[in-house]
Amino acid sequence: MRLALTAGRSKLAFLTVPFVSLPAHADAPLEYFLHSNGPAATPTMHLGWGLTAMCVAVVVIIAVLLAGALLRRRPAAAPRALGKEEGGLGWIYVGVGVSTLALLASLFYTLVTLQAVAQPSAPAGMTITVTAYDWWWKIDYGDAADPSHRFVTANEIHIPVGVPVKIGLRSADVIHAFWVPRLAGKTQAIPGQINTQWIQADAPGVYRGQCTQFCGAQHAHMAFDVVAQPQADFDAWRDAQVRQAKAPVDGQLRTGQKIFMDRCAGCHAIRGSDAAGVQAPDLTHVGSRKQLAAGTLPNTPEHLLDWVQHAQQIKPDSLMPSIALSAQDATALSAYLATLR
Amino acid sequence: MADLAPNQPDLRLARRPEIGRLPQGSAREQRLRELWESEPGWRGWLSTVDHKRIGIRYIVTAFIFLIAGGIEALVMRVQLARPNSHLLSPEQYNQLFTMHGITMIFLYALPVLSGFSNYLWPLVLGARDMAFPRLNALSFWVFLFAGLFLYASFPLGQAPDAGWFNYVPLSSLEYNTGPNVDVYALGMVLLGVSTTVGSVNFVVTLLRMRAPGMSIDRLPILVWGTLTASAANLVAIPSVSLAFLMLWLDRQVGTHFFDVANGGRPMLWQHMFWIFAHPWVYVVVLPAMGIVSDALPTFCRRPLVGYTPVAISTVATMMIGFVVWIHHMFATGIAPLALAFFGAASTLISIPSAVATFAWIATIWLGRPVYRVPFLFFAGFVLMFVIGGVSGVMTAAVPFDWQLTDTYFVVAHLHYVLLGINVFPVLGGIYYWFPKFTGRMTSERLGKLSFWVTLIGFNVGFFPMHISGLLGMPRRIYTYPADMGWDTTNMITTIGSFVFAVGILIFLIDVAVSLRRGKPAGDNPWDGASLEWSVPSPPPPYNFAVVPVVASRNPLWEDRIGEGARSQLEEGFVLDHGREALGTTSLDARPDIILKIPSDSYAPFLLGLFSALLFVAMLLHAWIFAGFTAAACGAAILLWLWPERLLIQREPQRVQDVGTGHE
């Protein structure tokens, strides 16, 4: 389901060897140490390499000194002989002096990097408001300059490649955090205030994100995708998202819609129908998304029906109940949901 | 005794104590022993104020909590060993990780160091007891009852579940309706009482009760560490106690400090919590670093290199530790310029740590290592300290922390610093002072085995967490999908954590076996330098038969390291007109006053018990019961403070008969 991810362009790619040869899956979508895909993340990745190199060097030097101290030969001495208190201050002067210089250098590099990633170098091309809910993400494109480009979706963000995008972060309930590591660092979504950060993708792809502030029972299943597309593809996606859902004409689809209105519309919205619930993800174009339930399941008709009927088993204590459906109703609902592309 | 002019009347002493010797076994020494001994049986158990017994209780109780927290961790590790595991429900996992943090950070890490300090301070300072023995007993009882209060929620399935950091609004009534968070809030306020009175006791003991001649540049580094931590506690604990009280009021009384819908601010919680919790992490490591600074030189056969820089670095670390708390909040949306200051301070705080690290390495290098079990733990500690410290430097870099924070990288960092800088010195310290506490030696074989298994298990368990974190694994997730690349590191971590648990088990077996069958230890089996090794093992209840006079940092090594100093340990003030100790001046430790020390009392136990019951009443909203328990607390305080003739600090001018004992 995921597109191939391109490694951050860097001459230090040989350092990836120890990671690549780890007996782990090659695909680690939240990994950010060796891969970055935008100017909000790449300087940080380089800083990470520099700090890691410095820290590994420090540990190695200390280990060597410690081993030397433990293992070095000393002339034999009487059993009750003791050394005097004098001596050894040179160790402290040199050790602390070198450490201080290294720390000051790393501090300087850190501040330079902070300057580089705190703000985009160009003004933001678009603004998206992300509201974090227990345990999903509302994505609001309501700040578009053109009113005909405004819409609401959930759990999947699309952005055009190469454009700095400002994210306004809100929370509807508790503190969450928005994190798409290949594109940027994380920022908390705190109720009562609006935090902002920016992201930018320099290559097309699907970048995974996840909530990274403990927010209760299903914090573990609160992921999202950021899909970066060339501008033309992004415009096409946006135009499709703005469209309202069509009213069904077919008998089974109307049955399915009625089930939806009875059982789901209290929480969910489908623009173009009477369903206008605001507590749960907007489902107008749920079929267009790659995943369901905030990154918990791949989006297939089977998984969607499984989710509807067994939500509490898949994501226990989430706010989606398990909806009991007869086989006939399940088929009808599934058919209706399949039209929501 | 050059400090005291022989024929000048010293009115502050009111009675000039005689100078003499009290040999072991003499009739007078026997009388002194009887004065200080607690009653046998349960009566003595409840009423003792002997700092040595209280210290042991702190250590044993802290270890019980360590085991509880460890079991919580092992259950979580089984859950996380593989993806999509269903061993635990989300709620169970959330309670486990919350209680694991609370237990380790509050019920183990500080109390175990309080235990060491309680036991050792009077002995290394040349004093008879702490400044406030009954307050000492109170601080233990309140700690015990607060721990029981917190754990009573577990069998009811209502343990705190919003993380040890307990952020609002998740911990507010709206999102957490059960009593879980109320247990945490009230338990913390209660525990804060214990820590606060304990800190007061340490500070005053340091200022008043050192042996003559123990100027502040002769203090053991353990004393510097605990003193610094205690002073910090007095400033930091009010913040967290207030925060938890405010949270409890929001939840149960209807205030709106943190309630967003009514003008409250979630960030206020974060600031109030971290302004306490960051200094707290230095509180739980500085005394342990002091243990290493004092005990390591014994096994290097030379005094510590750089005593003064190490002492100053202890204080400097704590002070800088008060201006770094926002590094726990780098991702909260605070302006980058402000973050830059805290990031800089967080980076530079490693400089005093570097002072200590190089002091330890130099001490080993220039000394002649003796590879006994305590030394192994201290040597291993140095490397764990550095690994934990450098991962901290990585997280101090603000933009990189925006990636690292709330991932397993931080979990790796915090365990390297907490296990490396607290647990390893504690294990080494127990092996080191076990002969003094019990009069028996531990088994070298079992001890070495426990060291290697613990060291290997710890590193196999926690080093891969750095990798998990760099692979993007968030914290506090009860499970994870199979295709995230985290499977292998999690499995290795789980295996390592079980190996580490085996190492701890071997340690406990060693302690249990040695208590029964350890070889008898003499006064000074390690040939140590400090005053505790000049008294028998275990020490008599009065610690020192006569008040020692200290002339250097290493009193028992003076004749062999040729400093020309001559401490006087065999002959000194004989203070046996009741329970007495010597008060000295704050900086230079010149004799100043005879202090009357309280004997055993049930008041601390009763006050601790009724305070805990008061908090139970508040938890249950049983206000009438709360009134009764508050009144009972008042009665216990009255009992405590009731004037006693034996405690009058000014004696009549008439010289007492020497040897009649009581007034």
From TrEMBL, chain A:
<protein>
    <recommendedName>
        <fullName>Cytochrome aa3 subunit 2</fullName>
    </recommendedName>
</protein>
<dbReference type="GO" id="GO:0016020">
    <property type="term" value="C:membrane"/>
</dbReference>
<dbReference type="Pfam" id="PF00116">
    <property type="entry name" value="COX2"/>
</dbReference>
<feature type="domain" description="Cytochrome c">
    <location>
        <begin position="251"/>
        <end position="341"/>
    </location>
</feature>
<dbReference type="GO" id="GO:0004129">
    <property type="term" value="F:cytochrome-c oxidase activity"/>
</dbReference>
<keyword id="KW-0812">Transmembrane</keyword>
<dbReference type="InterPro" id="IPR002429">
    <property type="entry name" value="CcO_II-like_C"/>
</dbReference>
<keyword id="KW-0349">Heme</keyword>
<dbReference type="InterPro" id="IPR014222">
    <property type="entry name" value="Cyt_c_oxidase_su2"/>
</dbReference>
<keyword id="KW-0249">Electron transport</keyword>
<keyword id="KW-0408">Iron</keyword>
<comment type="similarity">
    <text>Belongs to the cytochrome c oxidase subunit 2 family.</text>
</comment>
<dbReference type="InterPro" id="IPR036909">
    <property type="entry name" value="Cyt_c-like_dom_sf"/>
</dbReference>
<dbReference type="InterPro" id="IPR001505">
    <property type="entry name" value="Copper_CuA"/>
</dbReference>
<dbReference type="GO" id="GO:0016491">
    <property type="term" value="F:oxidoreductase activity"/>
</dbReference>
<keyword id="KW-0614">Plasmid</keyword>
<keyword id="KW-0479">Metal-binding</keyword>
<dbReference type="GO" id="GO:0020037">
    <property type="term" value="F:heme binding"/>
</dbReference>
<feature type="domain" description="Cytochrome oxidase subunit II copper A binding">
    <location>
        <begin position="123"/>
        <end position="240"/>
    </location>
</feature>
<feature type="transmembrane region" description="Helical">
    <location>
        <begin position="91"/>
        <end position="112"/>
    </location>
</feature>
<dbReference type="InterPro" id="IPR034236">
    <property type="entry name" value="CuRO_CcO_Caa3_II"/>
</dbReference>
<keyword id="KW-0186">Copper</keyword>
From TrEMBL, chain B:
<dbReference type="InterPro" id="IPR023616">
    <property type="entry name" value="Cyt_c_oxase-like_su1_dom"/>
</dbReference>
<feature type="transmembrane region" description="Helical">
    <location>
        <begin position="96"/>
        <end position="123"/>
    </location>
</feature>
<dbReference type="GO" id="GO:0005886">
    <property type="term" value="C:plasma membrane"/>
</dbReference>
<feature type="domain" description="Cytochrome oxidase subunit I profile">
    <location>
        <begin position="30"/>
        <end position="551"/>
    </location>
</feature>
<feature type="transmembrane region" description="Helical">
    <location>
        <begin position="183"/>
        <end position="207"/>
    </location>
</feature>
<feature type="transmembrane region" description="Helical">
    <location>
        <begin position="56"/>
        <end position="76"/>
    </location>
</feature>
<feature type="transmembrane region" description="Helical">
    <location>
        <begin position="304"/>
        <end position="326"/>
    </location>
</feature>
<dbReference type="InterPro" id="IPR000883">
    <property type="entry name" value="Cyt_C_Oxase_1"/>
</dbReference>
<comment type="function">
    <text>Cytochrome c oxidase is the component of the respiratory chain that catalyzes the reduction of oxygen to water. Subunits 1-3 form the functional core of the enzyme complex. CO I is the catalytic subunit of the enzyme. Electrons originating in cytochrome c are transferred via the copper A center of subunit 2 and heme A of subunit 1 to the bimetallic center formed by heme A3 and copper B.</text>
</comment>
<feature type="transmembrane region" description="Helical">
    <location>
        <begin position="624"/>
        <end position="642"/>
    </location>
</feature>
<comment type="similarity">
    <text>Belongs to the heme-copper respiratory oxidase family.</text>
</comment>
<keyword id="KW-0479">Metal-binding</keyword>
<dbReference type="GO" id="GO:0015990">
    <property type="term" value="P:electron transport coupled proton transport"/>
</dbReference>
<dbReference type="GO" id="GO:0022904">
    <property type="term" value="P:respiratory electron transport chain"/>
</dbReference>
<dbReference type="InterPro" id="IPR014241">
    <property type="entry name" value="Cyt_c_oxidase_su1_bac"/>
</dbReference>
<keyword id="KW-0472">Membrane</keyword>
<feature type="transmembrane region" description="Helical">
    <location>
        <begin position="414"/>
        <end position="434"/>
    </location>
</feature>
<dbReference type="GO" id="GO:0006119">
    <property type="term" value="P:oxidative phosphorylation"/>
</dbReference>
<keyword id="KW-1003">Cell membrane</keyword>
<keyword id="KW-0812">Transmembrane</keyword>
<keyword id="KW-0349">Heme</keyword>
<keyword id="KW-0614">Plasmid</keyword>
